[in-house]
Write a structure and sequence with these properties.
Distance between the termini: 73 Å
Number of helices: 7
Radius of gyration: 38 Å
Number of domains: 2
Helix content: 55-70%
CATH architecture of the largest domain: Orthogonal Bundle
Shape: rod-shaped
Structural class: mainly alpha
CATH class of the largest domain: Mainly Alpha
CATH topology of the largest domain: Rna Polymerase Sigma Factor, Chain: A
Length: 185
């Protein structure tokens, strides 16, 4: 990037700085932005700003002058990217183009659904044959009621609920010969 506008000494001094430090400025940006095109654009922007303020440069501490300008360009670039994120287009979640729902799980085939329904029917028939206390506890537990709530509902202790459920599961396993929902509490 060489800009000539007359005033020969200034342009030659600028060109000397450009040739001497361009690679270093590019490497500085390459480490920061991790992209060749952006690093080149930022290096060019740095030298554009240096050229615009070159009349104020006294010729001392060349790298410090260039590095300060490069850092300011980098900070402005970072700020502009953050601003771009804040002012990004918004999408109406009720709109037709927005779908944040996970894909539906695959549906079991008809044979699997019928088999599961038959197992469920056998389970509920077997539960109906349990003694009344065990039957009540099992029905409430299968309805996702916690032990403490079952105990309050039936007016018994939590330990009684646990032992009734244990006995009910044992009887159902014996009768059905299948595994049952595991006790999660």
């Amino acid at each position: 990037m060489i800009i000539r506008t007359g005033g020969g000494g200034r342009d030659e001094r600028f060109e000397a700085l450009y040739r001497k430090y361009y690679g270093r400025v590019y490497k500085f940006f390459r480490k920061q932005v991790h992209g060749d095109d952006e690093a080149q654009d930022l290096a060019q922007e740095t030298y554009k700003r240096i050229y615009e303020t070159f009349a104020q440069y006294r010729g001392e501490a060349e790298w410090a002058f260039i590095e300060t300008t490069a850092r300011n360009v980098l900070f402005n670039w970072i700020r502009s990217r953050k601003t771009a994120k804040r002012s990004a287009d918004t999408v109406d979640i009720d709109g037709p183009g927005f779908n944040n729902d996970p894909p539906a799980p695959p549906q079991p085939d008809l044979a699997d659904r019928q088999e599961a329904e038959m197992r469920r029917a056998r389970l509920w028939a077997a539960i109906a044959e349990l003694p009344e206390g065990q039957k009540q506890c099992m029905e409430l537990w299968l309805g996702d009621t916690k032990y403490e709530a079952i105990a309050r509902t039936l007016g018994i202790s939590v330990d009684a609920v646990k032992s009734r459920l244990r006995d009910a599961r044992r009887a159902l396993r014996t009768q059905l010969g299948e595994s049952l929902p595991e006790d999660e509490e």
